[in-house]
């Protein structure tokens, strides 16, 4: 069974005027179908307004589809008797760390979720310690969240989700407001949770360097998933990505441009090492 199984979903936002009459509706998701297996690390790319956040909110029942069905571990998210279990299974981390903090001390912040779920106190204490250790923030257990950097706050937000023992974490541009160090730390934590604890990760990001280590990338445009493949497959289509107004990693772009100029490089080069190796092979071929 797939941990996430999305079948032909559409979602319409309804805008209302002052009198509460519906003025127009916006189709934010348009016939999206996809599956994610437990333990996958998925990156979601797409220009602003392509439907990424709307999609993300469907994965933990913050939104339910207008049409079609979302199954999380087999649970239909539109059945309200599943809502709590769906939210335990797929936790969400948002862009702005400040909007996610509710408590005045880090350990209370992390314990908030399990407490709301009715987890017994000694079990909460253990989960809080484990979660803080996992994100490398145990030393800040007694600190006030307001004193932390953006990257540290995001790691606390992730710990708060971890304390609910999710199978899946959906992170909607969690690094967008962070400095490079904060970004790297958050990315490292997401990859570690994926590798060591088999947590399924859905990472929405604009940063191309953050997606090259994903197992798969979904590219969204106009409410549809228009590309779905490994980073190498996706970044073999530089022209298509540019048409979708998306960047590609610097080295991928350089290799693509050299290829356009006639250098026989392969498509989908993702790292400097690969690029250098390709150039070496080419040079060897010539002597
Ligand atoms: P992304 O996260 O990729 O930027 P969103 O999912 O936020 O995209 O938005 C998809 C579409 O839905 C856009 O056209 C956006 O304007 C519209 N939209 C998003 N949120 C709302 C809302 N609360 N009310 C009306 N329209 C919305
Ligand atoms: Mg968004």
Explain what the structure shows:
This protein is of the alpha/beta class and 287 residues long. The chain has a single domain, classed as Rossmann fold, CATH 3.40.50.300. It has ten helices and ten strands. The radius of gyration is 21 Å and the shape is globular. The model has no long low-confidence stretch (mean pLDDT 93). It binds adenosine-5'-diphosphate and magnesium ion. Magnesium ion binds at residues 52-53.
Short summary of the structure?
This protein is of the alpha/beta class. The chain has helices at residues 52-58, 83-89, 106-116, 121-134, 150-162, 180-197, 231-234, 238-243, 250-260, 272-286, and strands at 4-16, 22-36, 41-46, 67-72, 75-76, 90-93, 168-172, 200-204, 216-221, 224-229. The chain has a single domain (2-248), classed as Rossmann fold, CATH 3.40.50.
């Amino acid at each position: 069974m797939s941990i996430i199984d999305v079948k032909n979903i559409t979602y319409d936002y309804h805008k209302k005027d002052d009198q509460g009459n519906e003025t127009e509706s916006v189709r934010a998701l348009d016939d999206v179908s996809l599956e994610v297996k437990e333990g996958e690390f998925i990156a979601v790319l797409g220009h602003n307004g392509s439907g990424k956040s709307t999609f993300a909110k469907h994965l933990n029942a913050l939104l339910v589809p207008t049409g079609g069905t979302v199954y999380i571990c087999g649970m239909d998210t539109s059945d309200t008797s599943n809502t709590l279990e769906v939210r335990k299974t797929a936790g969400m981390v948002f862009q702005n760390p400040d909007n996610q903090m509710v408590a005045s001390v880090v350990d209370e912040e992390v314990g908030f979720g399990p407490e709301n779920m009715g987890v017994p106190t000694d079990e909460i204490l253990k989960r809080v310690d484990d979660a803080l250790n996992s994100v490398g923030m145990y030393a800040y257990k007694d600190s006030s969240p307001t004193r932390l950097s953006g990257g540290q706050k995001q790691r606390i937000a992730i710990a708060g989700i971890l304390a609910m023992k999710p199978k899946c974490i959906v992170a909607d541009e969690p690094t967008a407001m962070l400095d490079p160090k904060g970004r790297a730390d958050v990315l490292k934590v997401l990859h570690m949770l994926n590798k060591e604890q088999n947590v399924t990760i859905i990472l929405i990001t604009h940063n191309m360097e953050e997606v090259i280590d994903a197992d798969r990338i979904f590219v969204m445009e106009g409410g549809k998933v228009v590309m779905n493949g490994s980073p190498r497959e996706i970044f073999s289509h530089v022209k298509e990505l540019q048409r979708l107004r998306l960047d590609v990693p610097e080295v991928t772009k350089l290799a693509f441009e050299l290829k356009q100029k006639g250098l026989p490089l392969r498509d989908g080069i993702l790292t400097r090492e690969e690029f250098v190796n390709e150039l070496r092979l080419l040079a060897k071929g010539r002597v």
